[in-house]
Design a protein that fits this description.
GO molecular function: ATP binding; ATP hydrolysis activity; ATPase-coupled intramembrane lipid transporter activity; magnesium ion binding
Strand order of the largest sheet: 18-37-36-35-19-31-34-33-32
Keywords: ATP-binding, Lipid transport, Magnesium, Membrane, Metal-binding, Nucleotide-binding, Translocase, Transmembrane, Transmembrane helix, Transport
Subcellular location: Endosome membrane; Membrane
Structural class: alpha+beta
Number of helices: 42
Main location: membrane
Helix content: 40-55%
Shape: elongated
Radius of gyration: 42 Å
Number of strands: 37
Catalytic activity: a 1,2-diacyl-sn-glycero-3-phosphoethanolamine(out) + ATP + H2O = a 1,2-diacyl-sn-glycero-3-phosphoethanolamine(in) + ADP + phosphate + H(+); ATP + H2O + phospholipidSide 1 = ADP + phosphate + phospholipidSide 2
Largest sheet: 9 strands, mixed
């Protein structure tokens, strides 16, 4: 049966045409392009192909092609229209350009682009059920729905553009074509810390505002004024205050969120170098015999161009293309938010990774080709790519930056820093896939990455990278052979975590890396580990909310009592419940709507004070709604790396058995090294080996000094060789600078120290290492690296076997060279490996108490026979299929790890941030319990906890790690119950067990401990701990960090503080408060936090007092007026009382302070007493309620007694109102003055200014006052008597209470 694509073509020439037969024999390639349309594809035999090639190499083809074109030009245009549908058939997509069918496994590999790919801009419909079924069940082609087989559409459009089919399902794996526009939409690569969107802002903020009882209460009061029977005074009297409160709050929230968006925009606009790919003219994805639509249209409009146009067209189709890449490329700058899935990004040293990526190629700067478009030389290194991958840059586009070549010498390695992601200080080694490392960049468009669904696991990734075959034929008549279209089908290579760089990590190694974007924006590892932003409300807000509920109940009770005292009778035509509602509205000032206005304005003042404090420069308040909570913190959860420490290691101490060196004593070590590695004068320099004789100077005659010198040389040599550090050179400002790369900053610190004392690591690769004397500049040590045993968290040690070169430095040899095994590691594991000694345990304990990270160094000499036996058994163990790790460990232990000569102990310090020790001590004295949550190792966390004085000297540290059994968890919890003064050190695995099975028991014990250190914590675990403490204790929790891995913890806290880190601003942007150093936190809490809370507490009490006292006056008047629900102070008097006449003096209390900053820092216990909440407790609240009742009763009662209360007599009522209102205003001003502790000029100005404004406005109050009476002496003596009776008793009681029980601030001030 004929194949499905064997259709009849009416315009095709006969198969036995002499012309076609001759052409097929003479020019097989030209015939094949025609045969693709006129006959079914045939797979010729190898012998026949070879004969065609030989013929094609000898016959001049140009004349034959001209003759063929003359005879076939008339029918070709019709054929091409038929060919278009034929080539788009499924099987045609799997043919080589020579016309042969591909393998069945390659049926769905798109080789030929659809003619719709460039022209059509309409959205493609989702695949039909039949098409999906056909792709799975492999239906015959005549049943398959026509699929879009676009191969290479190289565009810079983004996902989600009109060409994207549909949004990608994030729960499924994704297939990414490198350098192409993706067929599915993916999220944009934008960082967002905003709380609101333009659509959610109003609903969310209004919901938050009216969730407070006080706002809902006033909303109901304002709505009640719509009812005529309940209307009292101006409608605006009730609506404007509420509208003003809501407007102020919404404006503050909007400004805060706009600021966050601006910060996000700054991070999202960071520029990155992206490779832009364009198809080469001969590599455009079109098989010979098919031209693009644009060129076909051009030819149709140019029919009069003669046969030369057709000749050029065919020669372009069949032109030699050997050595031409699939695509050319050039570099463009894209902002971070513009990066798309599939983009190839070029990253340099110390550059932040903007998205989750897979590394394709790594190369050093010295292998970068010059800044011009050049033909890339053939790659001589072995490659897994079967096709010829030499590329040619598009000569028409000169890159603006150095172009990138396949560098055979590149190792495909790169180091990254992940401390901003997982908190680990060690650098991570990342590798490129061998499939892509040696692939020319121009061939990257043939790559396809298959990755799993987005996941929050930062240490896990599984994927595959595939290299598709080339899609075009490469025919060269002078080569004598036609290159096949595809070598051997699709090649694939697995991908794992070692091939990835996640967003927010930093490239640490020199050189550059090319990586393809796999996950963007909210689908990156960091974003998935980050909890969404939430609106935070201060504890003071909740306390005031509960107090206003009591005031509302008081108002309701008072209204009911007055109606009951009137015996529920009808008053002025109103039934009793209408009178009760009017009383409720009259007493609405008891629940002060102005309280929220004053508090919100106060928060803005506190934020201004914080941001303009010159002693904590760079501090930014991003959430201005919770400054009072800074004064209520009881738990501080801190990150380690970059927060407490600088993540900069420094070698501080070395002990060689009999003597210890530190600080200035390091100069003596330098002198020993100078003596050991400097050749005598007049002698040629020779290489030094461990067996070389130590040459002591003439001044050093004692045997002890010579022995010490020899031991110092040996330990420094061991430290200079036993590591995984690679030196690199860079040029900065015309100077060559040597930098070091390694996975551990400890090792870099040690190698830097060996350079400082005179022995420099000059060169290092996988096979050799060279050391140079810093004194003479000569090469002094050269070794061949035989074996390396890298550091693991389980083994806690690192070893290396080297063979020393010897002889003259100019012609060294390693024949009969000494073989030595060097090892360094933690004292806990090295103690059983080194030879017996009596000083190791004591010295390591001493260094640990100083907070130093200790490493024990040893060596062992191996005979050639011993090493040969070891090497044989080691190779055998490495090939074991079962228990390979155990087998290798046994061989190493048998031959190497026993009776090692102990050389010395090193102490490396992880540099702390400035003033961390005194800051932690002050915070601890302030009653704050400090937890350290880090992603780093247990040993590192312990050392920093000791060095930072988080753990006090001599304090017991209870360590829980690698706990997997529940019974052991019970034992640990029981132990901690009996020892509440211990510090807990727990790792992430054990913490997960505790939080899963013993959640309540663990947290109930942990919150009582003075310090907790949790290490190996994931970002999610950090956030869980913060939430757990909040939920269990109901106390305020502050979290501080500097990295992207701390964002979840910061957002989960009541107060989040971010430090502007070296590697980015992610934590700073997501935090409520941003600072530049950890030590700024003490002033933020102990000074600004304490002041903010005490000021707001005093301000809220005064506002409540101001509203309550006028309501008591109204109550007394209602009783005297036979319980009529009429207003005592109407219209302007009511509005002016809470605004113009009292607002500024009361608000000026936000400038008050009880102690100076120096006293607050000297006595942090003043901060500790704030957590009791005594500044705004029920006790202090009821004291102010009683004061308000007393003063309101005295002011209104005495005014009615001395002046009268005749409602019918207008003059008497106005006289009474003038006396009582004047006393009321002056009473409030004097009460403010009585409460001030430290005077500020603004306070004085506001009090006297407000009094002046009031008396100046009296002449304009003729509608409320009897002005003639106000100017009389009778008014003034009654005013003075009532004011004294109102003010003197409360002030006397205050003085008496302060004398009997003075507050703490008066004790420390001595007053």
């Amino acid at each position: 049966m004929a194949t499905p694509h064997q259709y009849h073509q009416p315009n095709a020439p006969d198969e036995d045409s002499d012309l076609e037969l001759d052409l097929e024999e003479l020019d097989p390639l030209a015939a094949s392009s025609s045969a693709a349309a006129s006959s079914p594809p045939r797979r010729p035999s190898k012998e026949r192909r070879k004969r065609y090639h030989e013929l094609g190499a000898r016959i001049p083809l140009r004349n034959l092609r001209v003759g063929r074109l003359r005879s076939t030009r008339r029918t070709q245009e019709v054929e091409e229209e038929d060919l278009r549908g034929l080539i788009e058939d499924d099987d045609a997509a799997n043919r080589s350009s020579g016309g042969s069918l591909g393998q069945s496994g390659d049926d769905h590999v798109p080789l030929l682009p659809s003619h719709h790919a460039r022209g059509s801009k309409r959205r493609q419909p989702p695949p039909s059920a039949l098409s999906r079924l056909s792709s799975n069940m492999r239906l015959p082609n005549f049943l398959s729905s026509k699929q879009n087989t676009s191969g290479t559409q190289l565009d810079d459009g983004g996902e989600g553009g009109p060409d994207a089919d549909e949004e990608h399902d994030p729960t499924t794996q994704r297939t990414i074509t490198v350098g192409h526009l993706q067929t599915s939409r993916f999220p944009t690569n934008a960082v967002s810390n905003a709380k609101y969107t333009p659509w959610s802002f109003l609903p969310r903020t209004l919901y938050n505002e009216f969730s407070f009882f006080i706002n809902m209460y006033f909303l109901l009061v304002a709505m009640s004024q719509i009812i005529p029977a309940l209307r009292i005074g101006y409608l605006s009297t009730y609506i404007f205050p509420l509208a003003f409160v809501i407007t102020i709050t919404l404006t503050k929230e909007a400004l805060d969120d706009i600021t966050r968006r601006r910060r996000d925009a700054e991070a999202n606009s960071e520029g990155y170098m992206v490779l832009k790919f364009e198809e080469n003219s001969t590599g455009n994805g079109l098989a010979p015999g098919k031209t693009s639509d644009s060129k076909r249209r051009m030819r149709k409009t140019n029919k009069s161009g003669g046969r030369l146009t057709d000749i050029e067209d065919e020669e372009q189709r069949l032109s030699p293309s050997k050595g031409v890449s699939t695509a050319s490329y050039f570099e463009i700058i894209k902002p971070s938010r513009g990066l798309k899935v599939g983009d190839v990004v070029k990253l340099g040293k110390d550059q932040r990774v903007p998205a989750d990526m897979v590394i394709l190629k790594s190369y050093s700067n010295d292998t970068t080709p010059p800044n011009s478009a050049t033909i890339v030389p053939p790659d001589t290194s072995p490659t897994l790519v079967g096709d010829d991958t030499n590329g040619l840059l598009d000569l028409g586009k000169t890159p603006s930056k150095p172009s990138i070549a396949a560098t055979g010498g590149a190792s495909g390695e790169a180091f990254i820093r992940t401390d901003q992601l997982d908190g680990e200080t060690d650098w991570k080694l990342r590798l490129t896939s061998p499939l892509t490392q040696n692939l020319d960049v121009g061939e990257f468009t043939r790559l396809q990455v298959i990755a799993g669904k987005p996941d929050k696991k930062v240490n896990e990734f599984y994927g595959t990278i595939e290299l598709k075959p080339k899609r075009h034929s490469r025919y060269d008549p002078h080569d004598g052979e036609t290159q096949p279209t595809a070598s051997s089908g699709v090649q694939s290579s697995p991908l794992n975590i070692d091939n990835t760089v996640w967003a927010n990590t930093v490239l640490a190694s020199s050189g550059s890396v090319l990586a393809v974007v796999v996950y963007t924006g909210p689908q990156t590892r960091q974003a998935l580990s980050t909890s969404p932003s939430r609106s935070k409300t201060g504890l003071l807000e909740y306390e005031i909310n509960s107090l206003t509920k009591f005031l509302c109940i008081f108002t309701l009770s008072l209204s009911f009592v007055l109606v009951a005292m009137a015996r529920f009778r009808v008053i002025e035509g109103r039934v009793w419940w209408a009178s009760m509602l009017r009383f409720l509205i009259l007493f609405s000032t008891i629940v002060p709507v102005g309280l929220r206005v004053n508090l919100d304005m106060g928060k803005s003042v506190y934020a201004w004070f914080i941001e303009h404090d010159q002693s904590i420069p760079g501090t930014v308040v991003r959430t201005s709604t919770i400054p009072e909570d800074l004064g209520r913190i009881e738990y501080l959860l801190s990150d380690k790396t970059g927060t407490l420490t600088q993540n900069e290691m420094e070698m501080k101490k070395i002990h060689v058995g009999t003597v210890s060196y530190a600080n200035e004593a390091m100069d003596e070590v330098s002198s020993y090294i100078r003596q050991s590695f400097t050749a005598p004068a007049g002698e040629a320099p020779t290489l030094v080996t461990p067996s070389s004789t130590y040459t002591a100077p003439l001044t050093s005659t004692t045997r002890t000094r010579r022995e010490i010198g020899s031991r110092v040389r040996d330990v420094v040599l061991a430290l200079a060789l036993c590591h995984n550090v690679t030196p690199t050179t860079e040029e900065e400002d015309g100077e060559t600078i040597t930098t070091y790369q390694a996975s551990s900053p400890d090792e870099i610190a040690i190698v830097r120290w060996t350079e400082a004392v005179g022995l420099k690591l000059l060169q290092r690769d996988r096979e050799s290492m060279t050391l140079q004397s810093c004194e003479s500049g000569n090469l002094v040590v050269r070794v061949r690296v035989l074996n390396v045993f890298p550091f693991t968290s389980e083994g806690k040690r690192m070893g290396i076997v080297v063979k020393f070169y010897h002889g003259p430095a100019s012609s060294p040899t390693d024949e009969d060279g000494e073989i030595w095994f060097y090892q360094k590691g933690a004292d806990t594991v090295m103690a059983s490996i080194v030879a017996a000694n009596d000083w190791l345990e004591e010295e390591t304990s001493n260094m640990a108490r100083e907070g130093l990270r200790t490493l024990v160094v040893g060596r062992k000499k191996l005979s050639p026979r011993t090493y040969e036996d070891f090497s044989t058994k080691y190779a055998q163990a490495s090939l074991a299929l079962h228990n390979r790790d155990n087998a290798v460990a046994e061989v190493v232990k048998e031959y190497l790890e026993h009776n090692i000569e102990l050389l010395g102990v090193t102490g490396v310090e992880d540099k702390l941030q400035r003033d961390v020790k005194p800051s932690l001590e002050l915070l601890r004295n302030a009653g704050i319990k400090i937890w350290m949550l880090t992603g780093d190792k247990v040993e590192t966390a312990r050392c920093v906890a000791v060095s930072s004085k988080l753990v006090a000297r001599g304090q017991y540290v209870h360590t829980i790690q690698k706990m997997k059994r529940k019974d052991l968890a019970h034992d640990s919890l029981d132990f901690l119950r009996g020892k509440p003064d211990a510090c807990l050190l727990i790792d992430g695995e054990s913490l997960a067990l505790m939080l899963t099975h013993f959640r309540s028991q663990f947290i109930s014990i942990a919150v009582l401990l003075p310090a907790v250190v949790a290490c190996r914590c994931s970002p999610t675990q950090k956030a869980d701990v913060a939430k757990l403490i909040r939920e269990y204790t109901k106390k305020r929790v502050c979290c501080i960090g500097d990295g992207g891995n701390d964002v979840s913890m910061i957002q989960a806290a009541d107060v989040g503080v971010g430090i502007v880190g070296k590697e980015g601003k992610q934590a700073s942007l997501a935090a409520d408060f941003s600072i530049e150093q950890f030590c700024y936190l003490t002033k933020l809490l102990v000074w600004h936090g304490r002041n903010s809370y005490k000021r707001s507490a005093k301000l809220s009490q005064f506002v409540i007092h101001r509203g309550l006292i006028i309501s008591i006056c109204q109550t007394v008047y209602s009783i005297a007026s036979e319980f009529k629900p009429d207003a005592l102070y109407q219209d302007w008097l009511l509005v002016g009382y809470s605004t113009v006449y009292t607002m500024m003096p009361v608000f000026s209390l936000v400038l008050d302070r009880d102690v100076d900053e120096s006293v607050a820092n000297l006595y942090p216990e003043l901060y500790a007493e704030l957590k009791t909440g005594r500044s705004l407790s029920y006790k202090s609240f009821f004291i102010w309620v009683f004061v308000s009742i007393y003063q309101g009763s005295m002011i209104q009662g005495l005014s009615q007694l001395l002046v009268g209360v005749d409602v019918s007599g207008t003059n008497i009522f106005q006289r009474m109102v003038s006396v009582s209102f004047t006393v009321l205003v002056m009473n409030e001003l004097i009460m403010v003055a009585m409460e001030v502790v430290t005077w500020h000029w603004i306070m004085i100005a506001s009090i006297f200014g407000t009094a002046t404004i009031y008396f100046g406005s009296v002449p304009f109050l003729s509608g409320y006052y009897d002005l003639s009476y106000v100017s009389s002496l009778d008014f003034w003596w009654k005013f003075a008597v009532i004011a004294m009776i109102s003010l003197v008793p409360p002030y006397a009681a205050k003085i008496l209470g302060r004398t009997l029980r003075p507050p703490s601030y008066r004790k420390v001030r001595g007053i």
